[in-house]
């Protein structure tokens, strides 16, 4: 009965978003209220349940997502992203250009949210295309595969960051495991797969032909790489500190403070404000304008995360999640594969990777204590499933199609297949890690 109730709730969410075209946040609210009534929560308690769910998920995420968006926007607007891309292409040469673009997508994609990264980096692909005369799709897929991998697997991106506290995972450990899974995944879905796409002809629209900043106006190479990678370096060092430092120091209050993800991002943002902004002549008003635009970019994601939190809380307060966990406990399937499969189904139905990841997390979170599944790997399994089979109900599908000026058929051949490879290879990487650790 619990599974049937959850299926009905998800179907209602699908109909509201894809059928009626309701805003995802409003769709989550309507589905949450309907689910609460269906699950038998007393009517007078429904508003409190929804408020608790929204507040609970945003309380730990709002600062991280907003500050992360500001950081990524400054990296892009300052020219640091362009510097990273240009440097990698100079070092790798034309023979390994797809590998350079993959590395660009990975490095720049770490601090940038997916849609922002797509809009800002795809014109760089076209710039390379005009210089090298190589096919646009062949050049673009490696970069986009790397962007997808960072979006689905690695903090500070919305879905992994939201899943980590839900599963009781560790930010540093998840990041470390995520990088181990991400590297082979983006290689297979990027340069190796793109080699099969050289025959896809594409003439990008003139609208998207980039206007690069002059080299003299770009930040330095060391500054660009170091500042962009600083949050990842700090999170990694804070995780290693537990093992490298004496216990008394590792458990000190100041070490705990500096290990917090919110503090890490605030420190990185403060440094970037100076190194990429003030030191290079930007006024504080311009920097604040960039940060204001970044908040606008992330507002929709914040609302979707909040709505998913409301639905999750309904399932928790109604007891349905416990019933579901007990039902799923008896299914003879690896919990990591089960989580991946649930995320995949929701992704195919709804289109949004973030919504798929968050909704799947609310369903499978109660399973972890019963199965003993590694919570860090569960985050990655759901991340892999949330990237599967992007098609016509995914905004990324249409962004790719229009930017590269492709037919729907060629979009399926390249974009959809690339995203599916990322999801499948990502799951395989998670399962390999599960056997090792």
Automatic annotation (TrEMBL):
Top-level lineage group: Bacteria
Membrane topology: Multi-pass membrane protein
Chief location bin: membrane
Compartments where found: Cell membrane
Annotated TM spans: 26-43, 55-76, 96-124, 136-154, 174-197, 218-245, 257-277, 298-316, 336-365, 412-433
UniProt GO cellular component terms: plasma membrane
Keywords: Cell membrane, Membrane, Transmembrane, Transmembrane helix, Transport
GO molecular function, one term: gluconate transmembrane transporter activity
Record-stated family: Belongs to the GntP permease family.
Name of this protein: Gluconate transporter
Organism: Cellvibrio mixtus
Lineage of the organism: Bacteria, Pseudomonadati, Pseudomonadota, Gammaproteobacteria, Cellvibrionales
């Amino acid at each position: 009965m619990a599974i049937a109730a959850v299926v009905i709730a998800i179907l209602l969410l699908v109909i509201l978003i894809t059928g009626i075209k309701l805003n995802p946040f409003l769709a989550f609210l309507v589905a949450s209220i309907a689910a609460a009534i269906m699950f038998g929560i007393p009517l007078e308690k429904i508003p409190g349940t929804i408020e608790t769910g929204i507040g609970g998920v945003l309380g730990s995420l709002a600062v991280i997502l907003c500050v992360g968006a500001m950081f990524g926007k400054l990296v892009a607007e300052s020219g640091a992203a362009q510097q990273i891309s240009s440097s990698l292409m100079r070092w790798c040469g034309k023979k390994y250009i797809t590998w350079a673009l993959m590395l660009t997508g990975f490095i720049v994609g770490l601090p940038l949210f997916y849609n922002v990264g797509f809009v800002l980096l795809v014109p760089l692909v076209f710039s390379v295309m005009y210089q090298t005369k190589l096919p646009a799709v062949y050049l673009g897929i490696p970069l986009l595969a790397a962007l997808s991998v960072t979006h689905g697997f690695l903090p500070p991106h919305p879905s992994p960051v939201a899943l980590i506290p839900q599963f009781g995972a560790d930010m540093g450990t998840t990041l470390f495991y995520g990088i181990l899974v991400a590297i082979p995944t983006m290689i297979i879905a990027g340069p190796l797969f793109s080699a099969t796409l050289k025959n896809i002809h594409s003439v990008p629209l003139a609208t998207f032909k980039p206007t690069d900043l002059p080299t003299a106006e770009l930040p330095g190479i060391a500054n660009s790489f170091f500042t962009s990678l600083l949050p990842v370096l700090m999170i990694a060092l804070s995780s290693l500190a537990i093992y490298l430092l004496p216990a008394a120091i590792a458990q000190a209050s100041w070490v705990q403070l500096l290990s917090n993800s919110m503090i890490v991002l605030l420190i990185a943002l403060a440094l970037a404000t100076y190194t990429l902004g003030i030191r290079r002549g930007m006024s504080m008003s311009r920097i604040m304008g960039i940060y204001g635009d970044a908040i606008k970019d992330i507002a929709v994601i914040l609302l979707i995360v909040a709505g998913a939190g409301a639905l999750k809380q309904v399932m928790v307060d109604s007891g349905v999640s416990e019933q579901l966990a007990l039902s799923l406990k008896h299914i003879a399937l690896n919990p990591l594969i089960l989580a991946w499969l649930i995320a995949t189904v929701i992704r195919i139905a709804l289109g949004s990777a973030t919504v798929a990841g968050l909704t799947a997390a609310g369903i499978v979170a109660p399973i972890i204590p019963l199965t003993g599944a590694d919570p860090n790997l569960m985050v990655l399994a759901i991340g892999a499933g949330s990237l599967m089979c992007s098609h016509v109900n995914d905004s990324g599908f249409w962004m790719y199609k229009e930017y590269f000026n492709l037919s729907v058929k060629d979009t399926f051949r390249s974009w959809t297949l690339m995203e599916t490879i990322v999801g499948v290879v990502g799951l395989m990487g998670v399962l390999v890690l599960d056997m090792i650790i």
